[in-house]
């Protein structure tokens, strides 16, 4: 059993064998760890449904950050000169990422366009074309400049899925170093998207 901070308990593994789609729709905690997240050099993701982090167990997010829009405790932060709303618990993490990115920009000022017009931090909504709650609902995610990004849903044609990316390695490294996962590591790529998921980057949470 897994006991969450709000006092509720859930089986870690519900014992059901699920397809990828079923894991997305009805995950247990075990499912959320079923695709290992790997850092390191950026590489095209070609294995179908290799989407580490897209399987989310909503009760964990609800317990950690709030189960309704009103419950999500959002604060204003300044991030690389832009005003953003993020969850109070994660504000210090955003600040650490900002410091890393400031150092990156000092070395490579030409990368600034990737880090302007960032947004989508706090937005209580569903994922596009689904009934599933977006990770943006909890104020723990950020989207970089859309015009420098690739999203599988926007590709034409949408099928077959063909990974594409132009987000630079040093930007990805800065976020991952602070516990964010990146949507560019997904077969269903969303390269503007970074999401605070320290459990997926913690070796202690990795299955053998
Ligand atoms: Zn996003």
From TrEMBL:
Write down the SUPFAM superfamilies for this protein, in alphabetical order. Answer: Hedgehog/DD-peptidase
- Annotated Peptidase M15C domain residues: 129-196
Under InterPro entries, the record lists: Peptidase_M15C (IPR039561), Zn_M74/Hedgehog-like (IPR009045)
Q: Which domain of life is it from?
A: Bacteria
Matches recorded under Gene3D superfamilies: 3.30.1380.10
Q: What is this protein called?
A: M15 family metallopeptidase
Q: Which organism is it from?
A: Hyalangium rubrum
């Amino acid at each position: 059993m897994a006991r969450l901070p709000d006092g509720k308990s859930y089986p870690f593994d519900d014992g059901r064998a699920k397809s990828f789609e079923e894991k997305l729709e009805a995950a247990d905690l075990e499912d959320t760890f079923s695709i290992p997240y790997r850092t390191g050099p950026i590489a095209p993701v070609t294995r179908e449904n290799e989407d580490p982090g897209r399987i989310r167990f909503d009760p964990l997010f609800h317990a950690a950050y709030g189960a309704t829009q009103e419950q999500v405790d959002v604060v204003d932060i300044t991030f690389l000169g832009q005003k953003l709303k993020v969850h109070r618990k994660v504000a210090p993490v955003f600040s650490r990422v900002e410091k890393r990115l400031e150092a990156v920009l000092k070395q490579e000022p030409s990368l600034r366009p990737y880090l302007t017009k960032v947004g989508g931090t706090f937005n209580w909504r569903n994922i596009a074309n689904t009934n599933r709650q977006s990770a943006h609902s909890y104020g723990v995610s950020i989207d970089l400049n859309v015009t420098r990004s690739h999203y599988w849903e926007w590709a034409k044609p949408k099928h077959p899925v063909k990974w594409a990316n132009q987000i630079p390695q040093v930007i990805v490294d800065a976020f991952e170093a602070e516990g964010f996962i990146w949507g560019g590591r997904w077969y269903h790529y969303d390269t503007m998207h970074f999401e605070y998921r320290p459990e997926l980057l913690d070796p202690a949470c990795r299955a053998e």
